[in-house]
Amino acid sequence: MNIQERILTFVTRTNWALFVLTSLIGLLLASRSFAFGIICGGLIVTVNFHLLHRTLKKALRPPHLASHHAVLAKYYLRFIASGVILFLLISNHLVNPLGLFVGLSVVVASITLATARELKRLIFKEAV
User: Fold this and answer.
1) How far apart are CA 117 and CA 97, in angstroms?
2) DSSP state, 95?
3) Residue 7 and residue 124: Cα distance in Å, rounded?
4) Which residues lie below 8 Å from residue 48, measured CB to CB, with a gap of 6+?
5) Is-contact 42 103, C-beta < 8 A?
6) Helix/strand/coil (H, E, C) string of 7-70?
7) Rounded Cα gap, residues 79 and 67, in angstroms
8) How far apart are the C-alpha atoms of 128 and 119, rounded to whole Å?
9) CB count, 10 Å around CB of 113?
10) Of the candidates 7, 5, 4, 1, which has an alpha carbon nearest to the alpha carbon of residue 110?
């Protein structure tokens, strides 16, 4: 497995693991609106990540390469839909904004962990 596939697999699995972990911690230790913010934010960002992965995978698979306009259109539609959902959640006071921020950070945290993991592999591989 090459480095790109390894990172993508790690990030995809870690997204769901961090989402479940942060949601459980939020449910056990925080208020209802904070926990609901974590759950909603984590779900939004994790689903968006998977949809982006699927869109890019289909668009870049030969011989049926999609136009970049179609990929960008799907990206912006997801972006607008996410923005509307976030606006509705915050404006209707359904979630705590800080909890939502924590939930939205799930993918960033998993990408950071994947980067640290690969850097560790490279450093220790060169040391041997």
Assistant:
1) 30
2) S
3) 17
4) 78, 82
5) yes
6) HHHHHHHHHHHHHHHHHHHHHHHCCHHHHHHHHHHHHHHHHHHHHHHHHHHHHCCCCCCCCHHH
7) 19
8) 14
9) 15
10) 7
pTM across the whole model: 0.84
**Taking the alpha carbons of 14, 17, 20, 25 in that order, is the dihedral positive or negative?**
negative
Residue 33 is encoded by which pair of tokens?
A: 């609106």
Task: Look up residue 7 and give its two tokens.
Answer: 């990172």
CA Rg value for the chain: 17
Alpha carbon distance 128, 83 (integer Å): 48
**pLDDT by position in tens, the chain (length 128):** 788 888 889 999 999 999 999 999 999 999 999 999 999 999 999 999 999 988 888 888 877 777 888 889 999 999 999 999 999 999 999 999 999 999 999 999 999 999 999 999 888 876 55
